[in-house]
Amino acid sequence: MIFGRSERGKPPVEPVTLKILVAGGFGVGKTTLVGAVSEIRPLRTEELLTEAGRPVDDTSGVEGKRTTTVAMDFGRITLREDLVLYLFGTPGQERFWFMWDELSEGALGAIVLADTRRLEDCFAAVDYFERRSIPFLVGVNCFEGAARYPADDIRQALDLDADVPLVLCDARDRESVKETLIGVVQHAMAFQADRRQTVTT
């Protein structure tokens, strides 16, 4: 099967598509995470950081960052012939938050990436998904040189509900990202099952 086309006279398969968002603060690794697992060359909307953006783009702790996402990152993973996962990386800066409502439409769930050096940068994403009842997990991106903290301490600092998963991950590593995505899907399934149970009781 070639994606979107039939083979040897077989009728084309219309795949079921799932969407997962990758959110978090500026420079936390969203673009890197999408690129680590996408089977296609990710669609990126990166632009160079400029002097004009210096007052609003805080690069403290990520001084080496030279570009920023201005719309979204997009990647794709074909899980089966009839099942495709789309990844949408959201822009991190506040001036681009108006796009989040559009990107989150129909999302199965989300990953909120966190950097322990700038933990406060992911508060807005956590709040966004909590307010809209979109299941999410927090992935603490383990940057080289960043201090390591117990997961319970990070959970407390983020004031996460007990049922929100928190995992340590490496956005550069394909296997680590795959495990994080599996965690999102499992959490989303449990979240939906709980909601159905609540409705029927």
Largest sheet entry: 6 strands, mixed
Gyration radius from CA atoms, angstroms? 18 Å
- Stretches where pLDDT is under 50 for at least 5 consecutive residues are 1-6
Approximate shape: globular
Q: Give the tally of β-strands.
A: 8
Separation, N- and C-terminal Cα atoms: 44 Å
In terms of structural class, how would the helical and strand content be classed?
A: alpha/beta
Indicate the proportion of strand residues.
15-25%
Q: What is the element string, with H for helices and E for strands?
A: EHEEEEHEHEHEH
Name the assembly state.
single chain
Mean pLDDT reading: 84
Name the helicity range: 25-40%
List the strand order in the largest sheet.
4-5-1-6-7-8
User: What's the total helix number?
Assistant: 5
Features:
201 residues, six-stranded mixed β-sheet, two-stranded antiparallel sheet, 8 strands, 28% helix, disordered N terminus, GTP-binding, Gpn, Gliding_Motility_GTPase, hydrolase, nucleotide-binding
Please give a structural write-up.
- This protein has 201 residues and is of the alpha/beta class.
- It contains 5 helices and 8 strands; from the N terminus they run βαββββαβαβαβα.
- The protein is globular.
- The termini are far apart.
How would you summarize the topology of this molecule?
Blueprint: E1 16-24, H1 30-37, E2 46-48, E3 67-69, E4 73-80, E5 83-89, H2 100-104, E6 109-114, H3 123-131, E7 136-141, H4 151-158, E8 166-169, H5 174-200
Parallel strand pairs: 1-5, 1-6, 6-7, 7-8
Antiparallel strand pairs: 2-3, 4-5
